[in-house]
Amino acid sequence: MLLEDTRFIHEDLERLEQAISDRIAEDPRHIRDRLWRDHQVSDFLGRIQDQSTRLIDLYGNTEGREKEIQAISMGDPFDEFYKQLGQIKDFHRRYPNEPVENLERAYKKKIPIEGESSSAEMDNLFTGEEAWGKFLDLTTNHEQYLNLPNVKRVSYIQYLDMFDIFTPPQCSVKRADKTTDQYFNYVKSLASYLEEFMKRTRPLEDLDKIFKSFDQDFDKAWDEGMMHGWGAPENHGSAGPITQGTGEGIWCPDCEKEFKNDNVYKAHLTGKKHIKAASARKEGTNGDSAPASKGPSMTRLKERAVAEREHRTSRLAAALSSVRADTRVNVERKQGMTERERQQELEALFADTNDQIAAQESDEESNGDERIYNPLKLPLAWDGKPIPFWLYKLHGLGVEFNCEVCGNFVYMGRRAFDKHFSEARHVYGLKCLGITNTSMFREITGIEDALKLWEKLQRDKKVEETEGKDVVQMEDADGNVMPEKVYLDLQKQGLL
Fold this sequence. Notes:
It is built from 19 helices and 6 strands. Helix 7 (about 155-160) packs antiparallel against helix 13 and helix 8 (about 180-200) runs parallel beside helix 12 (about 300-320). The protein is about 55% helix and about 5% strand. A hairpin with a 5-residue loop joins strand 5 (about 475) and strand 6 (about 480-485). The protein is mainly alpha-helical. It has helices at about 1-25, 30-60, 60-75, 75-95, 105, 140-145, 155-160, 180-200, 205-225, 260-270, 270-290, 300-320, 320-335, 340-365, 390-395, 415-420, 425-430, 445-470, 485-490, and strands at about 250, 255-260, 400-405, 410, 475, 480-485.
């Protein structure tokens, strides 16, 4: 029944689109609920792709559709109807307990049971350390790194800074040790974790396309020999090659060590340790040269596999740079907490989650009866409701006052405008203009007016200082000191 299957798929697609629009219209408060919504939308989009592919195949079967249309249109239509009805009854007679798929209930949002969250399944996707996708949990990978041979022991915070760097001096694993199964399993598990973490936290992104671009970039860099630390092995003379370390000193490929001084590098060439490492490296190179004529050596294939995992890890870490920085801050914060404080934080987190769930359920039950109607955008009072309009007009909150000194900031109402002259914003704006005495600049809002007033005050101050220096002091018979002008006035009046 091609026509019925086509109709069913079209109905399924419409219900899927409606389910997606219903969930996108929501705005969950908790990150767990938002992730659960995104995962549901991702599943619906995947089902739409599958059903669309199936629908295209049905439309491509033109012969079957024509035969079915002819069977319905030609002859007695009731014969074909009862024939299909008999097939349906025969199917249910053979399978009496076959469940009927109800599309309306299949994509409808489920109502959570009392005491449970609608996104309880999300708790199984993340560990407690990940906090529903906020942070990375690399503790297992850190332990695997510490168990590698000949590695420096680093703390978890140091590991978070350098887990995507695979070259010296940050990574002390030698190139020969990277081809071991233990190191390959470590890099593979690290890349797999970061890849799975992106899939869990970004369900709506086209991650397959991103991962494919990683592989293409690696293939291009490997073929051109541009992979840092994985170039073709070469033999060097007494002069040191270009460093693979910090880029400042001389790198010894045999000892895999960096030397800051040329004399120290030349002196170590005669040491037993260097001679032993050079002979071992030479034997390894000769061992790989035999099968090289037939094709790529086994060692080179292993190096390619390891380098591919390292490249993928570095690209994934770059894509998760913000989460990585948040993880470092969270780890440092937790290391400074006691066990009791950590327990209190977990209890507060779960209590906050339960409160948000209860608040969400209460909001759904209220049906919008308590929504605040505020079309005039009036300020809110202490009880969360808009103030009366007469009070809004009384205080002049509809009048705008612009202050150029504050960066053209607009103050609503005379009261806020008068108050802002003593606030930090206005004082800082005056100091930027070189004005230190801010008490004299009240009601001055223009930059040009403020500069003119400041220049006038500076001129008056200089005049007062010069006049004060030129005053002649006089002394009377009783020893009283006074300016010359006052002395002459008193003398004329006969008071001296």
